[in-house]
Amino acid sequence: MQGNILSKGLISLVTALFLIPLQSTAQDLSGREIMEKLEDNRRATSNSALSRMQLSTCKFGVREGKITCAERPRVKSLESVGKGYGVDLKDSRSVAILLDPPAERGIGMLSFIYDDGARDNETWLYLSALGRVKRIASGSSDDETEPGSLFGSEFTTEDQDTGKLDEYEINLLEETEISGREVWKIETIPNEERARQSRYSRTVLYIDKERFVELRIEMYDQYGKEIKRMLGTRVELMNGIWVARSTTIMNLVTNRLSNMAFLEMHTGIDVPDEFLTQRTLTDAAFRETELEKLRAQID
Amino acid sequence: MIELEKLVGIATIALVVALNPANAQDDVLLLDDDVQFDGDFAFDDDLFGAAFDEDSSANTSSWLDDFTIKISQQFSGQINNHGVDIAPGFSLPREAELETNRLGANIRYQNAFAPGWVLQFSGQIRSYWKDDYEYEAEGDKIDIEYRINEFFLQHSFDQHSLKFGRQTVVWGETVGNSVLDVINTTEFRDFNIIDIEDARLNQWMLVWDYFGEDSNFSSFVNLYPEFNPAAVRGSPFFFEPEFNLTDYDRDSSMLFEAGTQWRKSFEGSDISFMAAYLYENQLRYEDPVSRLGDAVAETNDFFLLGFSANRAIGKLLLNFDLAYSHDVLADSFNFPGTASLANPVNLKKDQIGTSMGFEYAISNEQSVSLGIQAQMLLDEDEGLLPGQSLINDGVFGSWLMRYSNTLMNNDLVISSTLQGDLAANSLLALLGADYTINDNWAVSGQIINISSNDESPLLFFAEDVRLSATLTYSF
Q1: Among A105, A142, B277, B404, which has the minimal tally of Cβ within 10 Å of its Cβ?
Q2: Given CB atoms, is B64 within the 8 Å cutoff of chain A?
Q3: CATH number of the domain encompassing residue B224
Q4: Closest residue in chain A to residue B40, using alpha carbons only
Q5: CB B67: neighbour CB atoms within 10 A?
């Protein structure tokens, strides 16, 4: 089950949640054009990337008028390597290794994600207790399953899957200000077919006009009630890309929140094809050696 | 009954202690479900800022980082007072009692100490407290046991990887009951271990992996084959034999096992072919000469040819294993953790076996799997004397069904396992719950019920109900 979840969300996680290369000069873009730029830039950041992330989840409450954790957060950290393949690099392969917590250390996942909806994504999992690599039945990225939680967090595959723009009505609602930044407020409404696969009937995005970073996203259910809210903070320039290094999503139904912190994210890494194979899952000596080589490219 | 109350009490205390929300921030106002915000609201931007602060010191690695340690306290017991009718007019009393009360530590160490090199070790230490069957078997003394699981050195270069030391080799696709998963020995010491993943024992082997561009080879040599250990005195599987069951006397004989597997992945499928020369993991015990002394442990070597494949179709994964074994013993009374106590027919035969099944992801939270293992001896009547018959005649095997449901953002996993034999003589049903309290603490509980008729060796455990609780701390 974990594999199913991971396989769907891994690439998006690795690549580009809220990572938007900027320098847009067009200020008179339509809502569709803004979203297309987001899509293009996310794909660009998914290629040849090495990332280290921390995922924290907790029940939230209010203290001194502010939203905060009501319990000690559950924390997972992972390292991931991804690379684009196929026509226009729309397919991708990635490896993710959990570093913490200790009970899950060493769990590895290899995923092949195909852009073509007719091709099922492929995922292999390595658990030391299992003693071997195991293929996970993950289904296609656009099947009609409920979007799954990512590593048990409030992030779901759907929250990261912002492509397939043809399946949405996109409206530029207004230009406004949020947290002292000028933003576009854009509304996306799924078409009938897409709506059947989505738990959101409407999404409202607030995109930083200068840096092309989503500072806030509100997700609404079919009754028009806001059920989730996502906040992008700590916007910083990483490797020439503006990145919301800290992204928090609040589930307003369960009162749980998750934060994804991009501790490191490096693009333009020369990732050998051999690294994105099952060998990386089983051969720890090979994996650690190759990871050192990848890290050396950063240094 | 006192034992039962003790078990339930201990389990309750463990759960209460484990679930105590010690980490809760008591000055935080908890919100009602379905909270709604009007417009903006205050959010502490630095709530998770520590992650970035920690990052700055992440390069300060310690040799301790290579260790993973898990400490656990486990209680389990049989809770159903009943009797088992094993012969006309004779009933075996089965009283409720605590069976395990043990504190254990599992230590794992992995260190990539140089480019291309890894040293890996894992081991366990167990301390058996009062009322544990191992405590009682030691004459009511606290017993401590150590065991090395993995201990190997790995060197990888170019397309090769060499691994030498104690390790496991797992073949086959069907999870839990593959006919090809016969390389390593197993120890089912008690009913707290019913999954083969937990029962597999490591052996001293040299493993060579070759990673080609399109396919992989994995070969092994085992110069010290080991065998399934006999049941530990005092454990639920232990029965006082007529003669002592000893380990195999190797004398000057040179035993070895060797095998190779070729594996290739296609889009949506993986296939493997394998061949091996092996010893049957279960020793066969024969009466001593003149019926004096210890039972005589006999080994049996055989050849194995195998094929395995899987196919992923959406949320469905199909698994298939096929095994052809040449020169296996026709009769080998093989019950987990016990030795062969019957008087088997001393014949070698060829055997064909298959295991197949599926895994289906019902949703992102729920999955179900089924595996069926079936085996059959070829020319089974050949060589039998008039009136003789085999213990396993015709098609024999087992089935295994698992269901799991992940709740509370993966914090709670409810699982169920049903396991039985193809002849429908026995059924083992397990219901388990694993709750992760935080990054360090976890608690689990399970209840197991066994049903059996007098055709199955599980008859001795018929109507047993076992309850267990385990509290674990990992760091």
Answers
A1: B277
A2: no
A3: 2.40.160.10
A4: A178
A5: 15
